Amino acid sequence: MMTLVLSQNDIHTLTNDYRMTVEPSEDREWSLPVMDLLDPEKSRMYMERVAPIFRTSLSTASVSMFVKRYGFLTAAPVLYAMSLLNKGLDCSVANSHLESFHKGDTWLPKLRLSDAAVSQPEEGKREEWRDWIIERLFADNISKVLRSLMKLVPVSSAVLWENAAIYIFWLYEKRMGEGATAEQKARMEEDFRYLVQEAPARLFGEARHNPLTRFYTEKRRTKAHEDPFRIRKTCCYYYQTTPGEESFCGGCPKVKHEFV
């Protein structure tokens, strides 16, 4: 692999559109090195501080809502850089920091890397290079964080993996193709197909199955939605963070969908 640095244009795109930052946040209460999420006591203390953001205490719902944000902030810049820029970021836990930011009443944490050097594949070796990036992102980061948080509350790995999966699908299907060249779109489509259909379980820190594959289902059209969409396999517990409202996500399996 060849080692490079991010260009100013790359940094501008990643920091403005893909939840990355190059500066530590001044808000140290809700910012931390990702390694702290693997420590039982530190992760519990942090999640107890974060839970009120989701209008709840430390619970299955607050952990689920946190993982939605965490999965997106880690996957978005790494997968955009890999597929659109053909550049690799090291998102291993030891190299990653969660930096806390607010936009109005919305909490929008971002990813900061201690070492933001990037790699590029050598000629004819992109598949091996891609595996290295995916493994750093999933097996050495997201999977470890999910397993640690699962020890705090009773929540299944399926719920947490689907929380990450839905945003990965959205990135590739809706977001990253905007303004992409034909070459970039072809690379993006190939990477997405590999991620959801072919990548081996070990790259995700799993023993038997690629955890994204089971959630990559056909989109369905319903009477309530003009555009087809995927119905989730699991409920993310969002409704438990809306007391008195019981608002459900559009694709929630608890909702009775009328298909057309």
UniProtKB/TrEMBL annotation:
MF term (GO), any: catalytic activity
Start and end residues of each Aerobactin siderophore biosynthesis IucA/IucC-like C-terminal domain: 64-219
Pfam families xrefs: FhuF (PF06276), FhuF_C (PF11575)
Span of the signal peptide: none
InterPro entries reported in the protein's UniProt record: FhuF_C (IPR024726), IucA/IucC-like_C (IPR022770)
Domain Ferric siderophore reductase C-terminal: residue ranges: 232-254
Protein's UniProt name: FhuF 2Fe-2S C-terminal domain-containing protein
Organism: Paenibacillus catalpae
Lineage: Bacteria, Bacillati, Bacillota, Bacilli, Bacillales
